[in-house]
Amino acid sequence: MEGENPPIQDIQPWKAIDTVYTNEKAGMDSVDKDLIKRVIYEASKDSNFFKKDEEKRKQTNERIARLKEKLAKVTEDEMKRYHATVRDSIRSAERERHLSRIWIHVDMDAFFASVEELDDPSLKSVPMAVGSIGMISTANYIARRFGVRSAMPGFIGKQLCPQLALVKPNFRRYKEKSEETKEVFRIFDPDFESGGLDEAYLDCTAFASVHGISGEEIAEQIRNLVMEKTKLTCSCGVACNKMLAKICSDKNKPNGQFFLSPNIAAIKAFVKDLPVRKIPGVGCVTEQLLNGFGINTCGDVIKNAHVIAAVFTPLTLSFLLTSSLGISTAFHGKKPAPGELSRKGISCEHTFTAKEDENTLLQMVGSLAHELSAAMASESIEGLTVTVKLKLSDFTVRTRSLTLLSPISDPESISRIASKMLRKEFPVKLRLLGIRMSGLSPIANANGKPKGNSKGS
Q: Of 116, 117, 193, 199, which one is the catalytic site residue?
């Protein structure tokens, strides 16, 4: 009939695409994942990106086949030993379980987009994303209903949502609002760990004990104070360790909170059906490898831990098993000595459609420098070494570094040095550009003492 969609062909190659863009973010529950895959396929099927992605999938499938061959050769006695290894690993992991701590992960809701909506209320009623045609930093919740999300190229976002408004990022403004949130976080945990401009981990155990209140009550106080201070909403996860708190903070977004009861039965029930990709640190390739053995959830990890022990490394087994039991870090890391940082480097990078116009690439360096400078300022750090990362149109990667005589953190200096290194590579056609600062140290205050707190990896 006229007006109806044409029948979908039996052969649908786009369905084979595994893409991060179909991983749900808050506000994307009802998104048609097949539609996103189809749009990406049509936009990139003749590109170098698509060919490279196909090659990666082929390599992953070949690796799965090799691992299955390895598993098939495992003898009955060997498998008994792997079962014993798993039992020992579980006993060891359980000794590291702490149920008495109160951790809260605070995640600002669509932070960059929300700041833009705060400054321009007309954006609240339209699908909007912060970023460019090359890369989206974040999208508001209206845009997410169309499948638009962070880390997605803007041209893909435009195909999913033609009316999408793209707003140029203002990192100076985001840093200002981020500092306001941190004033609130320090009330509850002076040693809170920053996860960037828009998230933080707070150990609220001491605060709860002193004030005689629960983690849920603290989370509500945090959300109310952040709203009062910034006019922005945030979401909180409350649990007995950092990993669980982070996962929980995504459960009732936006402007909500989720409490996970600190008892083993509740924790195991919570993680049982959790997709393995939800475990912080599990990426696309690891997910695909596990899926190749029918391991899709944390519950599957526990059931098939002997298989993981047989075909993966002991380190991988330990990490997956511990995480799937809901066990993770429950204390702040050891504080670095004065003048030292736990973080070794800090970086940002953007992927985009291949570009070779020199002025465009230099403008992108300026934007990256401002983004990186804002992230460094949020942690009160500066760096000695500037590294530029370039991914060419043929997917080869180059890095160029320069170590300075004195540390820097301002966007002008970072941009000037990175631009100088980039100019030496011209002419060049790029699809990724990144800047990294290393050799980090705390920025000293007027008295010459380090200020702020800086934690990271």
A: 199
